[in-house]
Amino acid sequence: MFNKFWGWYERNYKFNLVFTSFLFLLQIFHLYWLFTEVILFRLTGRSFFFLEPIWGQLSILFDYSEIPALISTSILYIHFLRQKFTYKSLLYLIFINIQWLHLFWITDEYVFEHLVEQGDLIEFTPWLAWVAIAIDYLELPVIYDTLKESIREIKKYLNKKTV
């Protein structure tokens, strides 16, 4: 069964790679919102997110595209490790999968504010929210790597088409 899956994955590698990269592009907007609306506000007392508030809400929605992105990226890095073991692939696989802790533990400042202000659940100390936010940014090197690999594969494909 695993051999069939990996055979299919290899045959559809370019699609899987580009799909994974696309999902991560949505995360870039979320990380931008998180930095300008939440982090800078906490540090300076001023929001630097100049888009309409609906975009902040959409950013939270975009954050849930992280779930399929985590799954597809984990499979991608397992694929890389199956081809050739590198510490970079292993480290990125860890960076991606630590996101599950972030997703199920506390989802950014938005949830943190509701937990503390409304007292619905346990009150988290602010440093735990900062840890959760820092975990979110562990995606950045993986996003860069998948986008770089996608661009490389697209260029190879386009060069092959023109020859």
Alpha carbon gap, first and last residue: 37 Å
Helix content: over 70%
The H/E string reads HHHHHHHHH
Number of domains: 1
The mean pLDDT is 83
Shape: globular
**Largest sheet descriptor:** none
Oligomer: single chain
Poorly predicted regions are: 114-122
Task: Report the strand count.
Answer: 0
User: How would you classify the helix and strand content by structural class?
Assistant: mainly alpha
Q: Strand portion, in percent?
A: under 5%
Number of helices: 9
Radius of gyration: 18 Å
Describe this structure in words.
The chain is built from nine helices and no strands. It has helices at residues 2-11, 13-44, 53-63, 66-83, 87-97, 99-105, 108-118, 126-136, 139-162. The chain is 83% helix and 0% strand. It has one domain (2-162). By secondary structure, the protein is mainly α. Helix 2 (13-44) packs across helix 4 (66-83). The longest helix has 32 residues, at 13-44. The model is unreliable at 114-122 (pLDDT under 50).
